[in-house]
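Hi W.,

Here's what went into the run:
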Amino acid sequence: MFRRNPSLTEQVKSHLKERIINAEFEEGRIPSETRLANELGVSRNTIRDAFSRLEIEGVIFRKQGVGTFVNEANLLVKTRLEEIVPYETLIREHGYTPSVALVEVEERRIEPELARCLNLKSGETVLAVQKLFLADGQPVIATWTYLPKRLIKRPYLDADLQAPVYQFLPEFCRQTLAYYLTDIVPIIAPAWLVERLALRSKPPTALLSFEEIGHNQDHEPVMKAVSYFRDDLLRLRLMRRYSL
Amino acid sequence: MFRRNPSLTEQVKSHLKERIINAEFEEGRIPSETRLANELGVSRNTIRDAFSRLEIEGVIFRKQGVGTFVNEANLLVKTRLEEIVPYETLIREHGYTPSVALVEVEERRIEPELARCLNLKSGETVLAVQKLFLADGQPVIATWTYLPKRLIKRPYLDADLQAPVYQFLPEFCRQTLAYYLTDIVPIIAPAWLVERLALRSKPPTALLSFEEIGHNQDHEPVMKAVSYFRDDLLRLRLMRRYSL
DNA sequence: CAGTGGTCTAGACCACGGG
DNA sequence: CCGTGGTCTAGACCACTGG
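Here's what came out:
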């Protein structure tokens, strides 16, 4: 039934996810682990691994002695903050058509606070990139990305900067982005943001921002990103559970 | 070496966590899975299960072909939003001594929006409870909890309401809180909050709030909670990763 | 090449929930 | 009681990394 690579577990997982999305399971009840193992021709452990991942994602839940079920509540959750997801995907999952605009690219002498975050010396320069993400043409997320000039190993075009950072970094800096450490910070929208995000409610307006330090696989900080969200259009919603 | 119950996996996990906290592993390198399995007298799968959970929590990371390591970066992260944690614990992990004050308890005729969230009829009443959490005596989190009167099966004292909701619900309502669906919303602090949280910066001040609908194990909404955070004292910081 | 983590199997027993 | 998910084992092979 399945090949190897991607792993059996991963194939079983996406197979089940598809059937869940197509609402193929009556009353949200998923067949038992033993039965699925027989049907799909894999061991029960493989089924369990796939179930575990789906459970972590919130797609299903299990009740000992009863069965495994589709988690309908999860359909309301469009965001999984623990995972890095391109903003285009986030926008699409909220039901809009995403697009990106490169607003501004400039080199800057580094500021002390940034130097501290990225372990840089005070003389260095960074590339500061401002992008704007739109949902159905409406601006919803504004981002600033700060990349130390020193890391850039190959010449690039502005168009290259329009791609997500996690694509730019390996290609032009020989760095792989492993994770962000993210601070969630509420702010009062400054004038330039009111304009950029076309905020219409009368000021002051509160906004969510993410302040993120991106780290490579050696746990060294390689970049900083700050994002501002229009929370009226893109609601950050998540599921919080006991224990898992 | 270990008894059953709690599960071997859980015991191995906390055993390792302790050794990690005590910095017993040189250069953050954790012994190989096979070696740990022999040392602790359990199967390699059990070690792997424990490792997986620690990896999800961000405590360790693994590199295929290399080894398993302590994740130092994780020490900066005090919050795991995906999990429900008592605010007292959150405050303690930020290095303060927590305390709670019950500010106000009142019964209210239900508002239309709340009725919709909790699947209530318009005639019903809810118990509205305001609490204030303090860190070293300073107010840092203000919460409102809304509980349908109808659910409360036993008489209670105000003191009972000072305990976390997930303790009150099973005891007085025969309900178990399974998860929250949480919206993260930035707001401008209204006057009562400026006073309650003793905000000193000149207004307007931006604040983070959580709007949460608590669900029981049958996925029915049973309560609503709104929390307001002083983000200057309690920073919401999290680790965002690729894929896991 | 040797050693590490990643995947998978087959089989065993336990704990829980419902009829 | 039976069927469910929860835990655990022993052993196999693969994929990757570093010397």
